[in-house]
Amino acid sequence: MDKLTEVLKYKFGYDSFREGQKEIIEQVIAGQDVVAILPTGMGKSLLYQLPGYLMEGSIVIVSPLLSLMQDQVEQLKILGEKRVVAINSFLSFEQKEKVFRNLSSYKFIFTSPEMLQNDRFNHALSAIRIAYIVADEAHCISQWGFDFRPDYLRIAKWLQQFRQTNVLALTATATSKVVEDIKTTLLMREPFEYIHSLDRPAIAYEAVEVKDAKEKLAWIIGRVTSTNGPGILYTQSRKKTEMYAHELQKRGIRVAYYHAKMEQDDRILVQQQFQQGQLEWICATNAFGMGIHKDNIRQIIHDHIPTSIASYMQEVGRAARDGAQSIASLLFTATDVEQAFYVAMQDFPEEADIRLAYESNDISLQLPETTTRILDYWKEELKEQETIQLFQTIKQKKWAEILSLYTMLQNEVCIREQLLHYFDEELTNRPKYCCSKCSLPLQEILVERKQRSEQKEEMNWKIKLDELLLS
Known about the structure:
- By secondary structure, the protein is of the alpha/beta class.
- The chain has 19 helices and 13 strands.
- The protein folds into two domains: 3-195, P-loop containing nucleotide triphosphate hydrolases (Rossmann fold), CATH 3.40.50.300; 203-338 and 403-440, Rossmann fold, CATH 3.40.50.
- It has helices at residues 3-12, 21-29, 44-49, 66-78, 93-101, 119-126, 139-143, 155-162, 176-185, 213-226, 238-249, 264-275, 309-316, 336-345, 351-359, 369-381, 384-410, 415-422, 442-470; strands at 34-37, 58-62, 84-87, 108-111, 130-135, 166-171, 192-195, 203-209, 231-234, 255-258, 281-284, 299-302, 326-332.
- Helix 15 packs across helix 16 (369-381) and helix 15 (351-359) packs antiparallel against helix 17.
- The longest helix is centred in the C-terminal third of the chain and has 29 residues, at 442-470.
């Protein structure tokens, strides 16, 4: 047994690596920059955790969400790792100062792009040995950096201080353009690239055109109440998450809603209840999903056209991590295209906003917080006319992307084939249950799912009965 497999067995309890894992880990240990694209459920966390036990120094993991950080910290603690910390807004000033003073005692240091701009944190980091740096969910650099979190783009300047070590970028989906954004922002030097097929044969794709919101609601209620979960219902509106949850609760479904305006403790509770099986369905905005360790999600439903194909693939990819048959259903109307574009653009600055930003030193009272944050960054990087041109280009690309997804749903070409083509991949093996354009005998899939649920319930009762008889 080689050293890597030995650590895999001793620390993580696995006998063998999944496809691609060992090659990536070997490159990280060798000091090589790495871009690794693996679908959800392929064990991306192992790729940054295992090398840490074979190298000196701390690992800095840049993560996009507080809930994701907390979940990753808890997963490591379950494995017996105590030298782990998440440095974020959950910590008080006193707690942060204590962590900073003892930073070298932590093996795994999770933080956000925003915290990388903290001088006190950087001073503490400069005093310790860093084994390597990890950009988790690295697609956010391209997908969010230009949209509403410019601190993702500031990572490039931050890395200039700590570029003596290598960088590992991990994500589930990325086009060639996104990969280039990742490599540029992370200052990568001829990185090793591992790109796994994005095809998920166990997920069937269903596109359903409806007349209006009333028909959408009726369809959703019918599907959720007549089939088994677990499942996630994605919507763009916080009010709709609550409305859907209320309607389904009235019909006896174990469901809760989730959106970004909820208290953090409430969000964590809902996430835990879903992961532990106490809830069968979640009605959520796209704030829900990253870091969800739930292998048996059977259904993903969208009541809208997502703002990008990459976002859609990220969200449906949360189903079927256990490899069992699942289905991703997308409901849409012709007017959803304009709504998707509005949602995508709502925080983007208009030309008048940009001119105001360049004329004024303080625009925080005149423009929304997100818009202000975006313009504060670009004022440092570009001239006024260049910024205007940049956002005109971004808007055109956003519109084209939304229209591409709408076209995929409307035409008669295989959905799976089109999704893979978007990521420069060809469909080589069409699964039995492919998509609503090919072959999708819904009753057959749903009956199979119901039978599995009944078999599982019967097995659980047998176990409970055996326990009672033996006690």
